[in-house]
Amino acid sequence: MTKEKIERINILARKAKTPEGLTPEEIAERDVLRREYIEAYKKSLTAQLNSTVIQYPDGTRRPLRPKKP
Prior knowledge:
2 helices; 9% strand; mainly alpha; 2 strands
């Protein structure tokens, strides 16, 4: 996610709060950008959790295991 895209999300969010609101094209653009942002955030968080280890009092270190559904 680039800074330009994040700035565009913020511009659309500010415009949505104004009396004139967003056009249908801008609403569609906002939805696409939000979805892209959320996916990038999830990917980043998953990578961070995959590299996290837990250190136990006896000194052993084990990686986090994925949650079982």
